[in-house]
Write a structure and sequence with these properties.
single chain, about 300 residues, mainly beta, four-stranded antiparallel β-sheet, 24 strands, about 0% helix, about 50% strand, globular
Length: about 300
């Protein structure tokens, strides 16, 4: 598998923790332990620096672009316990909201699908998750969900809003925590909040990342999780099944801590980032087995 790779110096002064392209793949946001976020325009194998955003007082762990229907909006979360929501105006990016209700590092953020509105999901080391919503009245509302993972939340991911055999939009997400568990949450019209509908146990150490696959048209939901225990699990649930149970399938063991998992836009290829500085791509074959189809190391050599 041959790929075109664009490498450049971001000018960050410390380790880079996240890099995210916007909806159109034209803007790149990076964040670092130096406390800053840097925005680049990328096109035709070239990049152009746009702006450095400085508002956090600690390492910035993740960035997340909102859907463009809400404007050019970027969220960031930090060790300083805050989430900042930035919006681009004529004079550059400015903070339009600061979420400071957590009591510890905010480790993960994710915007909901645009069908659910401008809703940002956050997970923190204080064991709580929160949902930050921009309401029709022009105000920001925060809903705190306590004791999500007692010892800390490391990862969050929204489920596809449109799923097979579901008559209405789904309001579900997954979280991964320091209790070694993955939890599935669903919105309840009765309680007007998200409740845990399933706890997926299998990892023997901290869950570092969780990722729902985009809806690929198959009557099945895919969720990937990775852990400090050097394992990646693919959890699946068939739409026709009346059971809430998820089937667990392990990829081949990895040689080091697995930090991140990420699906392709088509939802059929999973990228796995490991502590040995290698990224592997995995795909399900016709037998339902997951095979490694590509591997790249830090020097961008592919196999």
């Amino acid at each position: 598998m041959s790929t075109n790779t664009l490498q450049f110096d971001t000018q960050h002064e410390d380790m880079i923790h996240d890099a995210q392209l916007d909806y159109y793949g034209k803007r790149l946001a990076t964040c670092s332990s130096d406390g800053s976020i840097r925005i680049f325009e990328v096109s035709n194998q070239q990049q152009k620096f746009v702006e450095a955003l400085k508002g956090h007082t600690g390492p910035v762990w993740q960035v997340s672009w909102a859907h463009p229907k809400f404007g050019s909006v970027l969220a960031s979360c930090s060790y300083d316990g805050t989430v900042l929501i930035w919006k681009e105006t004529g004079s550059g990016f400015a903070v339009i909201h600061k979420h400071d209700k957590h009591q510890a590092s905010v480790n993960a953020i994710a915007w909901a699908s645009h069908e659910l509105g401008p809703v940002l999901l956050c997970g923190s080391s204080d064991g709580k998750i929160s949902l930050v919503s921009f309401t029709e009245t022009g105000t920001w509302e925060v809903q705190m969900i306590r004791s999500a993972h007692a010892t800390g939340v490391n990862a969050v991911s929204w489920a596809p809003v449109i799923a097979a055999n579901e008559p209405t939009n789904l309001k579900q997400f997954a979280t991964g925590g320091c209790d070694n568990n993955v939890k599935i949450w669903a919105y309840s019209d009765e309680t007007k909040t998200h409740d845990v509908v399933q706890t997926l146990s299998g990892h023997s150490d901290w869950v570092r990342d969780v990722a729902f696959a985009p809806n690929s048209g198959l009557p099945r939901t895919y969720l990937a999780s990775c852990s400090q225990d050097k394992n990646v699990y693919i959890w699946t649930r068939d739409a026709q099944s009346e059971s809430l149970d998820w089937k667990q399938q392990a990829l081949e063991p990895f040689p080091d801590v697995v930090w991140r998992v990420s699906w392709s836009l088509s939802g059929n290829v999973l990228a796995v980032s490991c502590g040995d500085n290698r990224v592997t791509l995995w795909k399900e074959n016709v037998k339902g087995e997951w095979e490694c189809i590509s591997e790249a190391n830090e020097s961008s050599q592919t196999a």
